């Protein structure tokens, strides 16, 4: 029983892949990051090598997993209680300056608190998200003026600009290789735009289909254009595109502090599944 930690993506996928795919909804972040690293390389999130880990029970079964793509913190799956202290102990030997922990609330918080106790640091809740899954899509009524379309290469600079604004809005550091991320999305139709009179006014991203699921992210409207229903229209178009691409389940995360977006997604037919937190280790 214990944690295995490695920098080898293939070893992680062989060991933990079946566990992650057994619950693709609760493990959505771990699965989509694994997919991106496999397709775009280990440095897509930053130049430092990622770390991967899985928890094996005394019976030899994998029962938990995590990853870390520096400079970001650790992202954990649901964890059995007996795996928490060993995770802090084992990962401390790799990087005692871990900046953050995120994952399901009932797993991320005890890891962050155990880390803080072990290293004499404090814990701050950085963001509280709720995971939603789409039931029956309910388009806005009335639909705002405009039309939806997939972004193309001619939208590349706008997409980069809007994604940078989005990361600033949510308080994340800018991705190390944002241009490569945008190019990948454009290649597979992963950015939807709502435009009025030929001018884009809102954007919604769609991830690739992974184990039958697609996650909508990000959803962004420039501040001067907010409150006009454009985000709802862009999200609706993106959901339809995801379903047409073969997704069985469409999901998204919403910041619980943003009552406007959480209410919007529920009006569109998204139903809550569980809470996910990000804790900063100060």
Q: Based on helices, strands and strand pairing, what is the structural class?
A: alpha+beta
Number of strands: 12
Strand content: 25-35%
Strand order of the largest sheet: 1-2-3-4-5-12-6-11-10-9-8-7
Uncertain spans? none
Radius of gyration: 19 Å
Q: Can you tell me the overall shape? A: globular
The average pLDDT score comes to: 96
Straight-line N-to-C gap: 31 Å
* Tally of helical runs: 8
Report the sheet with the most strands, covering strand number, pairing sense and barrel closure: 12 strands, mixed
Helix content: 25-40%
What is the string of helix and strand elements?
EHHEEEHEHEEHHEEEHEHE
Topology diagram in text:
Blueprint lengths: L1 E5 L2 H13 L6 H13 L10 E6 L5 E7 L5 E3 L7 H9 L7 E5 H15 L3 E12 L12 E4 L5 H15 L7 H11 L2 E6 L2 E8 L6 E8 L9 H15 L4 E7 L3 H9 L2 E12 L1
Parallel strand pairs: 4-5, 10-11
Antiparallel strand pairs: 1-2, 2-3, 3-4, 5-12, 6-11, 6-12, 7-8, 8-9, 9-10
Helix pairs in contact: 1-2, 3-4, 5-6
């Amino acid at each position: 029983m214990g944690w295995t930690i490695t920098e080898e993506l293939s070893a992680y996928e062989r060991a933990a892949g079946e566990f992650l795919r057994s619950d693709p909804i609760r493990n959505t972040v771990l699965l989509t990051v694994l997919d991106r690293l496999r397709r775009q390389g280990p440095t897509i999130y930053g130049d430092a090598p990622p770390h991967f880990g899985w928890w094996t029970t005394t019976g030899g079964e994998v029962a938990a997993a995590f990853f870390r793509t520096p400079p970001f913190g650790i992202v954990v799956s649901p964890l059995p209680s007996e795996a928490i202290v060993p995770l802090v102990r084992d990962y401390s030997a790799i990087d005692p300056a871990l900046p953050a922990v995120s994952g399901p609330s009932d797993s991320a918080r005890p890891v962050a608190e155990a880390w803080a106790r072990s290293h004499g640091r404090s814990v701050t809740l950085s963001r509280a998200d709720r995971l939603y899954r789409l039931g029956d899509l309910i388009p806005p009524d009335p639909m705002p003026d405009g039309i939806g379309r997939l972004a193309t290469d001619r939208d590349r600079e706008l997409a980069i600009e809007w994604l940078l604004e989005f990361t600033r809005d949510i308080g994340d550091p800018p991705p190390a290789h944002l241009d490569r991320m945008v190019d990948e999305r454009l290649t597979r139709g992963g950015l939807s735009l709502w435009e009025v009179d030929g001018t884009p006014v809102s954007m919604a991203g769609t991830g690739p289909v992974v184990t039958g699921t697609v996650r909508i992210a990000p959803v962004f409207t420039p501040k001067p254009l907010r409150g006009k229903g454009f985000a709802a229209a862009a999200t609706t178009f993106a959901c339809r595109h995801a379903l047409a691409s073969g997704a069985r389940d469409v999901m998204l995360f919403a910041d619980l502090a943003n009552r406007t977006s959480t209410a919007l997604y529920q009006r569109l037919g998204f139903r809550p599944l569980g809470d996910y937190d990000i804790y900063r280790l100060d």
